[in-house]
Amino acid sequence: MAVYTQVSAEALSRFLTRFDAGELVSAKGIAEGVENSNYLVETTRDRFILTLYEKRVAAADLPFFMALLDHLADKGLPVPPAIKDRQGVEIHELEGRPACLIRFLPGVSVSHPTPAQAQAAAQAMGQMHAALADFTLERPNALGPEGWAPLAERCGKDLDAIAPGLRGDVQKAVDRVLTAWPAGLPRSAIHADLFPDNVLMLGDRVTGVIDFYFACTEVRAYDLAVMHGAWAFDGAGKRFDAEIGTAVINGYAGAFGLSDAERAALPVLAEGAALRFFLTRAWDWLNTPADAMVTRKDPLAYWRRLEFYAAHGSALFA
Ligand SMILES: Nc1ncnc2c1ncn2[C@@H]1O[C@H](COP(=O)(O)OP(=O)(O)OP(=O)(O)O)[C@@H](O)[C@H]1O
Ligand SMILES: N[C@@H](CCO)C(=O)O
Fold it and tell me: Which of 12, 83, 119, 267 could form a disulfide with 101 if both were Cys (CB 3.0 to 4.6 A apart)?
């Protein structure tokens, strides 16, 4: 579920009077997603997504995310910008939470992408990187390489409750990846979480790229590494799909380009990306009560990816 904050019909109707968005017809909580509260709102004019930002999104970061979305939408990319009210304001407060009314985009996220869909999504990432070349705002990556050792430390010995010996193995993996981490690759604003559930599609066409709330300034090719890990394995991280992996790399390289240095760094970037999702999932796993209404995501699914990249990474991206 992802409705942490209930919005009353009265409060929502009042909220909508700030916009030229029509009057409230219906509002339904959206079950997908785990980070924020999302509603599908129908008015007499249109459909919108209402998002109330919860624990992981800091209000201070919203201007960066909204500027990024405006920048991409202005360049014609299928991303959902926030709707401006009559005063031109995008970021509001509702029921005590920061809130935005967001453009609704058609499409559905595919749970088992085909190579053609993976290629189209990777092309969309390439187009996004091209459009971000002149985006000047910056946001540090709180879940980037400098954050991994402290996060592993905070998970601590409880990691061994996920799998025996995991804590020591994680420390070794963090050390290994940080030692090999590339210096000097081009940096840019990136999405940083381009999983299949964050891409809306109709057939093989990308109709929406959503959920920019981890977007940050980072090594640009790291975005591609995140995508590769998220798209080219089954959910459990047990089976690698080489055809999807190739479609992701070729889709991106065809749309934006991939330098030799970036390609050579992909094995370690992919290991780093796997580590990032392993660590945040492990933290959530250890700190979310088993009976919470939120589905915990399996950290080991990303540990398996990390092991796969460590074993096969250099052959994979050659
Ligand atoms: N602009 C949009 N247009 C259409 N549907 C959207 C839009 N934004 C979000 N959705 C729908 O709402 C769902 C949840 O959105 P989102 O993934 O942003 O939630 P979240 O809680 O921030 O997520 P996550 O757990 O993936 O980080 C999506 O799966 C999608 O179905
Ligand atoms: N994509 C992340 C969740 C945060 O968006 C994961 O699957 O662990």
Answer: 83
Q: What is the pLDDT of residues 253-308, one digit of tens each?
A: 999 999 999 999 999 999 999 999 999 999 999 998 766 666 789 999 999 999 99
Please state the atom number of ligand 1 nearest to the C-alpha of residue 34.
25
Q: Which of 200, 277, 296 to mutate to test the pocket of ligand 1 (most atoms within 8 A of CB)?
A: 200
Pocket of ligand 2 (CB under 6 A): 193, 195, 277, 280-281, 297
Q: What is the ipTM of this complex?
A: 0.94
Instruction: Report which residue type is found at 81.
Output: P
Spell out where 67-192 has E strands.
92-94, 97-103, 187-190
Residue 105 three-state SS: coil
Which of 72, 103, 134 terminates a domain? The answer is 103
Q: Is residue 167 very low, low, confident or very high in pLDDT (cuts 50, 70, 90)?
A: very high
Atom of ligand 1 nearest to the CA of 213: 22
In a domain, 109, yes or no: no
Residue that finishes a domain, picked among 60, 81, 103: 103
- Is residue 48 a contact partner of residue 103, using CB atoms and an 8 Å limit? yes
Q: Evaluate whether residue 193 is within a structural domain.
A: yes
In this structure, what token pair is assigned to residue 315?
């052959």
154-163 pLDDT, tens digit per residue, is 999 999 999 9
User: What pLDDT is recorded for position 295?
Assistant: 77
CA distance 264 to 255: 19
